[in-house]
Structures
1.
Amino acid sequence: MNKEKWQRELNQMQLSEIQKQRMKQQVIATKQMKKVDWTYRITVPTFIVLALFCMYLFLGEQMNTKLIHQATAPQNLEMDHSDYFRNLEVHFGITFCLLIANINLGYFVFMETKRWQQPRIMSLRKILKRTQKGSYVLLPIFILIVLNFLLLTNVLSVAVLKWCIVALLILLHFFIILFITRHSKMTIACPHCQHQFSKKERRKLMNTILKPMQCPNCKQVVYYTKKSRKLSGMTNIINLVMLFIIANVGLPFLYTFICIAVYGILGIRKLLPLLTELEEKEEFLW
Amino acid sequence: MEIEQLIDTYSDYLYRIAYIYTKDRTAAEEVVQDVFLIYYRKSHQFQGNATLKTYLVKMTINRSYDYLRSWKNKKHIVLEMIKGSAKGVEQLYVEKELRGEITAAVLTLPIKDREVLLLYYYEEMTLAEIAELLELAVSTVKSRLQRAREKLKPKLQMEVTFDE
């Protein structure tokens, strides 16, 4: 075997300057990425707390069932079960809070972990990033529900059941909004002059109802696209249905009012701009 | 030594080693990058018992083995078997040309033979050094080297006759 020839052959194999530069950048970037570790430091303990709590619930449930069985014995018929139901509600409330915390932290971990660079994950992240603003709309609702759980722990378990349904519906609503806003461009541009609308201009545009909409740059009349109108209409209907359900679930009036206000303000301010696309001519909806 | 200086000095060298192990340029680049990443994070663990170059070479060998064991590599191999090579004919030809005939012949050998040849002929290590680095007995290294040479001989002769 010709040693020198092989060495010569191998020595020709080199990394290009671009590859080296990229390598340096990646190595240095990971040093800064260490800051991201907080997601794990919070998520893992939260998940462990949830798991422990579920274990406690499971064990506690068995003990409570024994209690109920004892209560059905003739000598214990007078025993009050309200404590059992109250405990059940408190447990349910805490589990719900922990679940929401876990979902949110899971989302952060998914978005922030720089190590996961597979194309499928990257495309999913892009979709989630586009719809991030839409998800903010629902965050206050989640908080409201959690607050209600904590406040209404002395209500009967039927109410808790209702709340479960509402929570599931809100979760469903969240995913519908994610689905609707998945292709949004995050910016509104004039079809005539390609002027990008600023935040203030966007807000003004959203508040224009009766007058024809105008581009602030070229002063030309602009219209919503057919797709944009359909999407925003659909979102509004879903929001209204959700509000109807929340209003009829037996919440105190104040909470219903807050829900409506939150939906109204954040829906118009944050969600609709995501669905807005403009064009030069008005199209018929059907 | 600063990490940037370290990359400038050793990246090409480690890249060649990783390439002989992984047989893939992209994978070799990834391996080298990982080596520097790990070194950058854990440089305090380097006690100075061996030279920095040996330390990095050992890390590259370990990372290359990790890559070969990984699902990513296995998936890649299975997909290539099913679909055929993802690389075009031109790209394959250019790669073959870039490799050189001896490297191409060495790459056809099993990994155990390849690594011994690489360390002995390219890195010019002694048998004892190779044995220490790979945690093997000197006699094992010697027999592997002998076996690798025997396997390589007909391949290189064949290439020469084809060239003629």
2.
Amino acid sequence: MTGGAKRLAGRAVDAALTRGGYSGPGLTLARRSVRDWARVRLGPQLLRGSVAGLAVAIPRPGRAELIPIEVPLAGSGEVTVEVLASAISPGTERAQWLRLPNAQPLLPFRPGYSGAGRVIAVGDDVAGLSPGELVAVPRLPHSSVATFPAAWAASVPEGVALEQAALVYLAIISGYGVRRGDVSPGDAVCVLGGGPIGALALRLAREAGAARLIGVGRSTRHEAAAALAGAEFRLVGAGLTDVAADVVIDATGDPEAVGAAVSAVRDGGTVVLLGSPRGVSSAVPVREVQERRLRLVGAHVSALATEAKRADGDPFGALAHAFLAAVGDGRLPVADLVGESIDPREVGLMYRQLAEGTLTAAHLDWRRLPQDARQRRRPTLRGPLLPNGPSSVGPPVRAPLDVSRSPLRFAVVGCGDIGFTNARAVARAQNADLVLVQDAVPALAHAAVAAHGGQVVASLGEALDPQRVDAVLLSVPHDLHAPLIAQAADAGLHIVVEKPLASDLPSARAAVAATDRAGVTLSVCFPYRYEAAPTAARALLTQGALGAFRGAALVFHAEKPPSYWQGGFSGRATSDWRLSRERAGGGVMIMNLTHHIDLLRYLSGCEVIEVSAAARQEPGRQVEDEIAVSVRFEGGAVGTLLGSASTRGVPQSRFELWGDLGTLQLEPEARLYSERALPGLVTGRWNALPLDLVDERTEYLERFAAAVLRRQAPDVTAIDGLAVQAVVDAVYRSMDSGRPALVESVQASA
Amino acid sequence: MSAAAAVAAIGPAPVLVDVVGSGRLGSEIRRLLGARLWATTSSEPPDAVIETTGETAAAVLALERVAPLGIVVLAGPSGATGSLDLYTDLHVRGLVLVGVPFEDE
């Protein structure tokens, strides 16, 4: 391909990727994937085919993810391996993640050190390796498949676990440090640093014949690892001048540890700098080095590569084979160094734990991925495998409804704005019958019956006839909720009340007390729970998709026209009760945000414990049009709720909830991001949540009816209604007083 | 004494050695090195550098000039401590820094 053609092709690829939603580091990774694909498919390797898998990538600081990769099958002098375990080098990978000095690779970056797996293909001219053989491979990025020079692979002796074999590169690094120290039989060797590199250095020094070993670590948790090498253990800061080691190996990576290393070595001895110092050493004891005739030896593994270029032999291979042989015949125990088995899909979480110090040793276990995700042969020409775009979580699976029982007979009281909609939901419910319909304005009741069925009755008393109905659905002005609930309870009917439970908390409590006395079921209509996205999200959240709850942000926008205040959105029932604080209880908070408060509780599993609110209301209205609320949840999470009834143009609302492992967004997009590996989720990516149209009110009523028919508690209980009502009352107390309000205090005084 | 010890610290391998410092110690070391003295016209870096000035900056320069896996001998009257980027100056290139006590001869 000519240079001009390449540029044209590059522009076409970029345009296609940009159209596909890729940008920034994601675009770079995608472009690289296309280039790799082109190299595999359009080059001379076309005949060889390729293998697809997954690899860890760090596209930007603080983010790690699995990306699809496609590697050519082994060519001349090469071998292709299905990686089953890859070792984490805690010091280096932590430093790379934190971008510490001397550990700032260009981004995007493919991390990884060392692994082990099964050979799946060998080049024609490769001897001594065959498909199916288990090999350890140094210098391997974290990936499920890799093709590399066959000389890198070292056979894993029988009986050596793959995660132990995967430590091979760490062992090479440590072994090189021991070698650079010229450790001789009978020497005293002191190793600073209790991580895997330090522990391996101690054990390999013993292999080299060291007679006395001293391990120095920051914490007593390194003591057991030192003991396995037969070493005595000391804590950092304990004083090392009496050690007088022939060789001191500094495996800390701390630039200031050189002083301690020098203090631990005998006159004329050797200090090996094995761990990469993450910064400048401010006080290298130069005079002491001179006066005591010390040797400071740099032992970065790249120096071994320099040696390899100069020497005829293969120093990497020699160290790898020596390590594997020692592990194989039991001389070198390493089972304690493999650390936690990590699902590669949780690599972002792993790096964070590594950075926080809560994880000190680990390996990625690629066997935890489905087989077809970690290794798929691609023998035929096909399109490139791009980094995943948003994936999709399947629609929520609901338990089938039992319709064998007799339906629950409903009366619908109130047929204005939402009452008309509620009557339709009852009519549609498979396990409910719309029997009686009543409204103070008979024309509204007749319209509802004409549309949805049932029979109009003139009075409330007739509607609450326990001989004719089992339950009532109340859709009336808020101040009528409590008295009508009490009246229906007295009649022995089960009750669904349109949200809120009542106009204030004392009224709500009185209503609940009435239902408790009557032994009937009361539920508040919070149907948002039954929409497809919240249902799917809830299922994932209960599996820990977000981890520990940390925060929520919610913005609700509406533009209620002037006519709304006289007749609701539909204008079917003329009444100004919505303008009255006494009758409605409030404005946009109680009228709309109650849905969101319920949803926050439902999804987070946490109650609001404190609120601080400020509001704005239009002249001539007693209720707020705009309200801003800061909330604190039990457990420490915080959130903001912003509601408006008068936003011109009605921008999209927002609903976001996040924890330490992920984020849920229901609006403006329904999607979930999680660092947990969960069925149906792509870890470390935004997963689209289902947006299937659900008749959520009908769903809610069917589940209410099913619960009542089975004599079980409904999904949304009176307790839920009271909890939401308490938050609303606290918000209004704060709004009125200008001070934060504790929900508990509101409950105590109600 | 210092000059002989500094040359001995490099070892017997046939390496080319550069010497930093034009004082008496440096001159004596150059004399002892003979044919092993690195030629300033060489296109290859020296395998070893003997630093005789005692200046930290000169020691850093010596570490930068020496070939990978090379040796730097500190033989001059050094200060008590120095600030070094051990990663860049020593670790990553596999250098060896050897101390030889300074004695005013």
